[in-house]
Amino acid sequence: MKSGVAFRWLPYVGFAGLLGGAAAAFWIAPPRTSAEWAAWIQAASVLLALCLALRLQYAAGRQAARQADQVATLFAANMHWVFRELSDACIKRAWADFAVHRRVLQEVLAQGREVSLQQIDGSGLAMVTSLRAMAVEGLEMVASHTPQGDWHQLHRYFEKRLPSIAGWLALYGHPPENSGPTDYQGLRTSFGQFG
């Protein structure tokens, strides 16, 4: 049994235990006065409020983790797109396209730095840190490039990294050939493509 499945049933088991304990206490010492009834109702209300608060906290944690995974996947998709575009600009020796996509790479890296590492699992953490390092390295490569620079070497650099970015996307269930962007996707509040 997966630990996630066990955690899903844990609140219900705890609630059933509390309910059973309350039923046993109610059977052993039933309330006789209105003050005792009020105490029982107050205790039941407090327990219900605690259970509801725990459930809401659990749901908020799951939603934050799911959103962090989606943002990480979007970061990977944007990295794939910008590396592919930089590779194409190097093939064409198109300085204008290259300069634009160099700035887009800076923006994608800034977005990648906003991904909450505390909310994602081990593979997502590895993906985001690897892609961040790749983006920093890519920025170092393009920063010193000039229109008269070695376009072929830079093209090989980007082409060599595209398969690993595609591998990360495939690991997360979004291989670039099926769901990759055809244009740059800035981080948005809705994640329709990956939701």
Please characterize this protein's 3D structure.
The protein has 195 residues and is mainly α. The protein has 2 domains: 3-60, no CATH class; 71-179, no CATH class. It contains 6 helices and no strands. Helix 2 (34-92) packs antiparallel against helix 3. The longest helix has 59 residues, at 34-92. It is rod-shaped. Mean pLDDT is 82; it is low at 178-182 and 186-195.
List the helices and strands and how they pair.
Blueprint (H helix, E strand, L loop, with lengths): L2 H26 L5 H59 L2 H19 L8 H22 L7 H21 L4 H4 L16
Helix pairs in contact: 2-3, 2-4, 2-5, 3-4, 4-5
N- and C-termini, Cα separation = 26 Å
Beta-strand portion reads: under 5%
The amount of helix comes to: over 70%
Runs in which pLDDT lies below 50 for 5 or more consecutive residues are: 178-182, 186-195
Using the CA coordinates, give the radius of gyration.
26 Å
Shape: rod-shaped
**How would a textbook summarize the main sheet?**
none
Number of domains: 2
Task: State the main characteristics.
195 residues, mainly alpha, 2 domains, 6 helices, 77% helix, disordered C terminus
Kindly summarize this structure in a few lines.
The protein is an all-alpha fold. Helix content is 77%, strand content 0%. The longest helix has 59 residues.
